[in-house]
Amino acid sequence: MQIDLNADLGEGAAHDRELLALISSASISCGVHAGDADAMAAAIRHALAHGVRIGAHPSFPDRANGGRAPMQPGFSSLRNHLLYQLGALDSLVRAQGTRLAYVKPHGALYNQAAADRQLAEDLVLVVQEFDPQLALMGLAGSELGYAAGQTGLRFIAEAFADRRYAPSGALLPRSDARALLHDPQEALAQALEIIMDGFVTAVDGSRVPVQADSMCLHGDTPEALLFARTLSAAFAEAGIMVRSSPPCA
User: Exposed, middle or buried by CB within 10 Å (0-12, 13-18, 19+), for 249?
Assistant: First the structure.
C-alpha cells in the first residue's frame, strides 16, 4: 500500500526544509498569495535534494487574505493570472534542471473549483493550454476531478489529514472553528481511515467515501512538522509507503 504525502510550501513558513525530508510531493507557491521568488527557488532546490515531486500552487490574486477570499473572475482574468503564476514557477523549476509535475490550486480557487463546474472546466482548460502533460491535483470526488476526467487530463485525487470534512465531502470552511485539526493523533487517525478504509468521518459523525491518491498537510500551520513526523512514522509501521504516483524521475 502506498500514498503520496504532499505539503504546500514556499509560503515563507519556517520548516519547509524539514518537511521536504518527510513528504513525496511539494506544492510550491507561485508568489502571489504568499512567498516570493527567493522562497520559491529555495523550495525547488530543497525538493530536488530530497527527490520530491514538484507541483505549482497558484491562487486568486489575493495576497492580503492569503488567497483565501472568494472571487468570481471572468475566464480571461483567470487565464491571465494562472498563466502568469505557472510561467513564473516553471521558469524557476527549469532553471534548476527539472520539470513541473502537477498543478494544485490554492485556497479559495481550490475550494470554489471543487464545487463550481464552470470554474473547474475553466481551470482545466488553462492547465491544458499551459502544458497538457501536467497533472491536476484537487479534492477527491470534486467537480475539478470530473472536469479533468472529461478532457483526459490526469487527476490526482487529494484528501486532507489536517482539515475536517462536511457531510457533503467538502472541506469544512475555515470560518468554522472546527475546520482545522490540531491533535497529531487525530490527524493520523483521519489519514489512516481514508487510506485504509476509503472513508472519512465528517463533523456530524457520518462516514463519507473518499478515494485519495495524495494526502495533504498544510505547510503553514504550526503543527505541520509534528503532523508530518507522526504520519511518516505511523505509515512506516503500518507498511504504507510514502511515494508520489507515478514516482519521481
Answer: exposed
